[in-house]
Amino acid sequence: MCEANKGIYIKAGQFVAAIRQVPKEYSTTLSSLQDHAIPFQFESIKHVFYAPCCFSKRPSGSGVKVQYPGLEFQWLVTELEKSIASELDFIAEAKNLERIRENFKDNSMVRVPNVFWDFTTRQVVKVDDLEFLKERGISEVKVAKFLAEVFAEMIFVHGFLHGDLHPGNILVSPEGENGFSVVLLDFGICKQLNEDFRLKYCELWEALVVKDSAKIQEIGVYFGVGKYSRYFPVIFTGRTIDSKSALGEGMSVEERKNLKQELKSLKMEDISSFMESLPTDFLTVLRTDGLLRSLTSKLGAPLRVRLLAYAEYALYGLSLKADSKSDSAIEVVLFRFKIGLRYIQLRLLFGILGIVSWLENIKHTSTRRFKDFLASAGFVVRSLYRPLLTA
Fold first, then answer.
1. Which end of the chain, C or N, has fewer beta carbons within 10 A?
2. How far is CA 180 from CA 109, 143, 155, 174, 235, in A?
3. How many of the other CB atoms lie within 10 Å of CB of 13?
4. DSSP annotation of 300
5. Do residues 151 and 292 make contact, with C-beta atoms less than 8 angstroms apart?
6. What is the pTM of this model?
7. Could you report the per-residue pLDDT of 313-366, keeping only the tens digit for each?
8. Any residues with CB less than 8 A from the CB of 285 and at least 6 apart, and which?
9. Where does the chain cross the membrane (predicted)?
């Protein structure tokens, strides 16, 4: 059906194939749309070229970007219209590619090809090709961790992100400093985030990590969702706003039961109101986060990998806050000093969580002792961190 209807149906199929929660029969079938779409008849597209080109009419893949006939359309849905229109603008896509390559110019682990893309080798495969990764001795979890860091840097630091994250646009090469490198493709859909949104989103993730419920609700008011902000922790971290569990551990049986009961009182109009109130930038990162979450899960990485990457880059993103003209030199120095202290204490949290992760693999550690340690570690870190939040 997707191949028959083409256009937006192809994009929808790519999205569905990337979601881990979709039944395997669907995701496996639709994954062919990510890099093996049926080629269009040459006679129908040759008029697109305005100058003579010498190349074979027989397709060697679906990597050549050609605008199919009939795709000059107008949609009533504003954001979808902008998104699709930008993807059909191949000049804009080339500029997006160059910008992302510039953003990662000092990171040898990220490889962004030029507009011709023909220099990539046959050894480069889709990022979710687990069999290939195992054959080459490439750690799936390390790939997942690196991907989380790349997209966290785009969102929290650059404020400019790739908006079409699916396995067909993320390839892995066995060449690189740490045994692999990541190749990013297809820059037709990229998003420039509003600077105020970027900073507030950084603050939201800082609050999510340290479980500062008051700050989460304050930011929820800023984003226009009011009381629904209490569900931010559930959406992003898998914990309730009053959860006692550690980062990445998920909800307890009791918390899950209470949440289920609470959600019963919500109506469809409540959910609709929540989604409509969110800024368009928030919806963009929400979609990207959902796809990244599915991908890292498929690679076998624990939830903590993504959460820690987001938390670390969110804090770094806050340190890049543009200096207000009204701020004095002393205020700027104090702000950066405060951010520096937050970063040090957040690293302490990461270290403790790393120890916790290591303890998970020790068979002789009893469940009770582990939970006691976890609770104690969380209390210590929050005790150290909370004074800075109110400073």
1. N
2. 8, 8, 23, 4, 31
3. 23
4. T
5. yes
6. 0.65
7. 998 898 777 554 556 677 777 777 777 777 777 767 666 766 665 665 554 445
8. 155, 161, 193, 201
9. 340-359
